[in-house]
Fold each of these.
Amino acid sequence: MPATAPDLDSRAAAVLGGGATHAARTYRPAIRVARARGSRKWLVDGRELVDYTMGHGALLLGHAPPEVVAAVRAQVEKGTHYGAASVVEVEWAERIVAAVDSVEQVRFTASGTEAAMLALRLARAATGRDRIAKFDGHFHGWYDAVSVELDGAGRPVPGAGVPASMAALTRVVRADDGDALATALSDQQVAAVVVEPSGAHYGRSPLQPGFMAEVRRRCDETGTLLVVDEVVTGFRVARGGMQELLGVRPDLSLFGKVMAGGLPGGAVGGRREVMELLSPADGHVVHPGTYNANPLTAAAGIATLDLIVDGEARAQADAYAERLEREWRCVLSDAGVAGRVWRLASIIHCALDDPDAQARLPGALRERGVDLLHTSGFCSTAHDERDLADTVAALAAAVRAAARVRR
Ligand SMILES: Cc1ncc(COP(=O)(O)O)c(C=O)c1O
């Protein structure tokens, strides 16, 4: 007998910390995926979902694109870990350097979180300063230094388990507050400002136009490095990432997700002079990591970057997202539910005015065959007409159910 979802929930509760494997996957009832292909995933109970979580934004080409599967399969046959330098790590880095103007050199990590850890260490080594600055609500993984947010009174609060002494080195500034940023940087003790260039949560809270240019300017005035987090936006919103769209040149960038082809991986890239602090020499920044540039991820990353290099995949995913955005707005207005739908390239966000309805929306959609990441959706080249029709029908019913509309 195949395991049912409730069976698996109780088994998971028994053996997984918190009953789950990711903070964003703790909702109940959990969905348990047996397999995924293209735009869809199939659950252990036989249900089929149109997927917009898309590997938390990693899968611009959908699940299991044949070329990426073939590249990974070929690499498995050749070995998954050489404990030595490889050809694929060079080929992978060359593609990133070619795509992103500000990136002269790359160092691979095993995740986006690790990329943030490494970039901040490099910035501290480069400047001889201990402090860093981040923006309230901006997410850069779960490393201590970036796990600090402001409370309602504007006081920084470290996440549970983050040492106060570590959090004290992080200055948290409200997004779009240029004066607060100037104050935070004014004593010239901050090594780096780290920022999501789309605004917090891949554009859920967009930055004011021109703010990123102001961040760059204030960094320049104070000798602070600018670290732009392109873990979600890199290779998705433009070939050269959000920095290309904004015309802002960071000192260091963080990458992950799309450039790792759906396998675990991340990278820091940027100015040669900073990246060269990784060269073996006295006082250099030591960066080991068993899975850095592991050949499987490198193979998936290369195959993915080759498939998207001409921009067509991005354009296709953006065009689907544009249609879904339009339809989604019609759904809200037809249902008479107040809220907003907006988009950054192939990423769609929805916010209903009523917070209770907003909280119910992802569950109501999952029940009707559509899986969002919270209330955001990542579109891919795999989404097609049938997905659009199924999504719009599910949205029409789910929005009414979440907002308790009786019509
Ligand atoms: C903007 C941003 N930075 C960093 C990370 C951390 O990446 P990872 O989950 O690979 O550690 C994420 C993950 O979602 C992210 O959205």
Amino acid sequence: MIIPESSISQRTLFIGDIHGCAREFEQLLSELQFRKSSDLLYLTGDAFTRGPDPAGVWTLIRDTDAKMVLGNHDYRLPDRLRQHMSGTPVSKHWADHLKTLEALAPVADALIPWLESLTLWIDEPDFLLVHAGINPEKGLEGTTTDEFLVIRTWPPVEGIVGPRWHDAYDPTGKLVIFGHDAPGGLVIKRRDDGSPYVIGLDSGCIYGGQLSGYVLEEDRVVQVESSHPRSERPNNH
Ligand SMILES: [Mn+2]
């Protein structure tokens, strides 16, 4: 059956931290029945580092015209790529990302300007998209760059254990969609009327979890299983 284009309503799709998992990204797009002509796709950031196929992720981002907020890894990637391509050895901290840099070097001319055009938040009437979160007391306007990129706990603590920023977020506020918190896993918090006000989509695909997507208009989560073995998330990132 051919469905007339005019009868297809526009959807708003979100996908959590991809971290170089191009295969799962492609599978999830297929599960979501992504259509470029009628769907808007948003990513929570940290799309490239760690995983096996960052260049494949870049191809899919181009193919889907995905929008993305800046993640903590994306934030450093342009400089690290330039450094790598100029022959300067990357710092020890980035040594485990050498494969990522090697894989992305051939597409750096297009990728670097795209990365540098990304914003820390995307604020639309129906949602606020950020990588890690916002300051739950000061709100979007009072959130620092560091908080947008790496906040997990509130009150802030060293490490990853503790109440989350979204535990302190006012449910009457706008729906916030975020990633970054693989240890926290998939998060959906709902108001009394059932509508979501917080959605966390980093379910640790690169650590053997799932890659998670969300369809705003249908209030529906869609996940694909990771092809990676279960592993502990390193605590230093
Ligand atoms: Mn992150």
